[in-house]
């Protein structure tokens, strides 16, 4: 008979297909989880079994009960064990042996009351005992136990001992005291010793200490410079002398160490930036020489970093008026230390622009440009001007301009104008001009294969191919990556500079920074984007018409406008007549005093207004400027007169009909109105340049030469023409060449001749014969004779 059929049906393949993937995945996870649990239980059982076997092998027979003994009993046992048996009597020895035999075989102490089964609580008691122990033990006086010979009485043997305090060695006491209060001891001992000395002895002691420190600095510095790779660790010793604690020599020693470390770093620093090694590079094995170089570079970077941190901390201590705990350096000496530290940072910034932490030095020095101490601020501003002049790539200039922008914005534009004046030293103008020339220059075109096959023979194609390959290599060498990078950096730098200027023009129009902003705009106006021209011209015109600007500021505004219009703004349809009138109105305000330095701005404006824009300037306007310039040349210094006459000469060459001013004839109706401030309507054509005749008797020889040249019509050839060294120079160059800032004339001016007064000579002084006879008769008459003029008068009446 067949076995009964199971009622539970097996799932068919089709039913398995209907089962969801999630359910199958859950079943698989449950099966794996069960297998892991089973394996885990098996591992635990095997582990317990191994531990039991190991314990059975190692375990030694233990007493059934363990009891805690009182401290008196423990000391007694230790004492008995330490006693020498050969010095004891036989009765005592027998008694002790009998006492030992009375104990159980498991050394059970019947006097103890501890329970027998206390093994389970042992581990917990151990943990509790550790928890009760304080984390930091209180200092207790150490005691030494000295055992004496025991005493015997009726009860038995009584051990004898006593305790005494342990006296520490004096060396340990001194070390602890120095560790706790090293600075206090030094300053308590030194004043007592110094007060006992006389002034001469103290000075002699100071000189000896200084000589000792100088020798140490020289020894460490020469060791590092002679062999930097092997003696790089000496820098740490030298840097430790920056913390000199002796108040007699602390200030001088710290200054010497700062300067010495600066010179050492300038000497041993490589000409590239040292990057940190990666983990893979550190793990690889290298040669001994390579490892030595790596250690040198790592040590150099770390010591340079610590040195810069020490300099920065010195400056912070001075700025925060904070005193050291050691009082080794007085508060009044902080300023001198800070100045030396700032000078060292400036020297390192200029000498190591390629090395690590250069941007960190810039961040430290830029806020000091706005310092209240004029000496510190001037030192930092001069350093950044030098940095801008010697920066060829533009990376250092970009980093500096970014920090300056952040400083101006954070201080809400309350900074000194010298901070923005340093931006005038940026070397961006030349590079941008080269870029424009290259972009407009036609590019070299190379022939393709079809053109070569069509126009050239086989041999010619071969030569042409080699020639084009060589030209491509030359072009790649000229247009190097560094040049493109430089142009990119300069463009970004200029954008930040204009951002600073435009922010001040918009938000701080009455700030003391406005003159520096206008001068900067005049300097970089030819690089401004064409989109900002209209807004900028309106802002500048509003500033000029407001009347709140000084002469110099107004001149900078005019220079900015005409620099823009003579460059990219030439395509704009703007009539700057108001700016012509403003400059014409300002010319009489200039004189030989303080405004004489503003003449150079006037000369630049005249070049942009008249010479470069001669096609957009009327003849009446040009003649009015020439007439007013000739008047101005009478009241300024000789170098300014030379520059103004040179500008008049350039205007007369640009407008040949200005020679009307050299004639006395009147052109047209009306007469000249010198007080009118409109150059178009002052009728300058009805005047003459009579000022040139006065200038021909000027004390400066170059002024006389220019005046005579202009009186002859400013010819380019002939006897009245100027020499090449004068005719080929611009008015601005002539102004700088013949400057009298050094209180000397160039060329030297001849002193006036010594003319003696003509003495009255008798007989040759008068020409009238009758008068001469009368004078002669009077001189020959005696003193007593009285002159009777009535007789003479009466005789003359008849």
Automatic annotation (TrEMBL):
<dbReference type="InterPro" id="IPR011501">
    <property type="entry name" value="Noc3_N"/>
</dbReference>
<dbReference type="GO" id="GO:0003682">
    <property type="term" value="F:chromatin binding"/>
</dbReference>
<feature type="domain" description="CCAAT-binding factor">
    <location>
        <begin position="554"/>
        <end position="707"/>
    </location>
</feature>
<feature type="region of interest" description="Disordered">
    <location>
        <begin position="439"/>
        <end position="462"/>
    </location>
</feature>
<dbReference type="InterPro" id="IPR005612">
    <property type="entry name" value="CCAAT-binding_factor"/>
</dbReference>
<dbReference type="GO" id="GO:0005730">
    <property type="term" value="C:nucleolus"/>
</dbReference>
<comment type="similarity">
    <text>Belongs to the CBF/MAK21 family.</text>
</comment>
<keyword id="KW-0175">Coiled coil</keyword>
<dbReference type="Pfam" id="PF03914">
    <property type="entry name" value="CBF"/>
</dbReference>
<dbReference type="InterPro" id="IPR016024">
    <property type="entry name" value="ARM-type_fold"/>
</dbReference>
<dbReference type="InterPro" id="IPR016903">
    <property type="entry name" value="Nucleolar_cplx-assoc_3"/>
</dbReference>
<feature type="region of interest" description="Disordered">
    <location>
        <begin position="63"/>
        <end position="87"/>
    </location>
</feature>
<feature type="compositionally biased region" description="Basic residues">
    <location>
        <begin position="442"/>
        <end position="462"/>
    </location>
</feature>
<feature type="domain" description="Nucleolar complex-associated protein 3 N-terminal">
    <location>
        <begin position="213"/>
        <end position="307"/>
    </location>
</feature>
<dbReference type="GO" id="GO:0006270">
    <property type="term" value="P:DNA replication initiation"/>
</dbReference>
<protein>
    <recommendedName>
        <fullName>Nucleolar complex protein 3 homolog</fullName>
    </recommendedName>
</protein>
<keyword id="KW-0539">Nucleus</keyword>
<feature type="compositionally biased region" description="Acidic residues">
    <location>
        <begin position="172"/>
        <end position="192"/>
    </location>
</feature>
<feature type="region of interest" description="Disordered">
    <location>
        <begin position="163"/>
        <end position="196"/>
    </location>
</feature>
<dbReference type="Pfam" id="PF07540">
    <property type="entry name" value="NOC3p"/>
</dbReference>
